[in-house]
């Protein structure tokens, strides 16, 4: 990896590792909040989101890409003679993955396998507000003296893509023990992915919350308050969905659930192009 790229990663980690007891340092983002972020999800998950008014973050230890599980296959030198398994972040860091691409063929095919998925669009600023609301909710539940031990760290970061060789260089340049003792450091590493996934153009929302009182579902999901009617800016159906089914679902969303008709549409990615009359 070139020196410039490595310096940028390490500089980002240094900045991110500054712990301050204020909202600005606890809720961080590395992208323009004016941007719209998108997420494709199966129809049943969308209805669950609307019904329960929750946006679910997943334990990052459950992510399929094994290169993102920081403790897997990692060892820490305890002293000159002893090597120990690195600690795991299971149950401590939760994530939600979004993309900046409004239209992306791969995303439809991967995340809408039944051709009936929905792409929701939410302004980055609104997602930051959702994270801040959760932060403030924690603030009201935790005594001031327990601040550092109980508060969640929340952030939104653009994913940076590197080759496997570059990522190995980054990891070997770090003190792994510091990584597992400092959750900020760990979250920074979770914003790095291999170039195999560059088509996702991903922005990650991450929450570190290692306390016993925070509500989690089976230890795998972290539910955040989310009002789909107020928080979602656009709803787009899979371009492969038959028009008749789209019209039925649009009627359901607008007439029964209360969404504006201007918000609900069907992707035109595969729509037939206009006729061209050649001279």
Note down, in words, how this protein is organized.
Helix 11 links the parallel strand 13 and strand 14. Helix content is 35%, strand content 23%. The protein is an alpha+beta fold and 279 residues long. The longest helix has 18 residues. The N terminus is likely disordered.
State the order of secondary-structure elements, H for helix, E for strand: HHEEHEEEEHEHHEEHHHEEEHEHE
Q: What structural class do the secondary elements suggest?
A: alpha+beta
**What does the oligomeric state look like here?**
single chain
- Going across the biggest sheet, name each strand in turn: 1-8-11-6-3-12
Sheet-strand content, in percent, reads: 15-25%
Distance between the termini: 53 Å
The total strand number stands at 14
Which geometry do the CA atoms define? globular
């Amino acid at each position: 990896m070139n020196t410039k790229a490595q310096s940028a990663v390490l500089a980002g980690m240094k900045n991110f590792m500054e712990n301050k007891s204020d909202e600005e340092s606890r809720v961080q983002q590395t992208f323009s909040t004016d941007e719209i972020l998108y997420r494709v999800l199966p129809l049943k998950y969308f209805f669950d989101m609307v019904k329960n008014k929750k946006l679910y973050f997943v334990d990052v230890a459950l992510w399929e890409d094994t290169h993102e599980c920081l403790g897997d296959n990692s060892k820490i030198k305890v002293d000159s003679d002893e090597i120990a398994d690195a600690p795991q972040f299971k149950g401590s860091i939760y994530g939600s993955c979004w993309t900046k691409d409004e239209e992306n063929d791969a995303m439809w095919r991967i995340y809408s396998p039944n051709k009936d998925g929905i792409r929701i669009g939410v302004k980055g600023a609104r997602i930051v507000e959702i994270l801040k609301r959760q932060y403030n909710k924690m603030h009201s539940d935790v005594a001031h003296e327990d601040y550092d031990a109980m508060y969640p760290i929340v952030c939104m970061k653009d994913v940076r893509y590197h080759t496997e060789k570059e990522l190995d260089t980054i990891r070997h340049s770090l003190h792994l023990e510091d990584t597992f003792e400092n959750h900020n450091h760990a979250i920074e590493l979770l914003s790095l992915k291999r170039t195999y996934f560059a088509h996702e153009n991903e922005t990650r929302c991450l929450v570190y919350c290692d306390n016993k009182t925070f509500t989690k579902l089976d230890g795998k999901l972290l539910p955040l308050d989310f009002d789909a009617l107020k928080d979602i800016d656009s709803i787009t159906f899979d371009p492969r969905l038959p028009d008749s089914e789209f019209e039925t679902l649009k009627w359901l969303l607008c007439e029964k659930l209360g969404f504006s008709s201007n918000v609900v549409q069907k992707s035109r990615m595969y729509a037939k192009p206009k006729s061209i009359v050649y001279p």
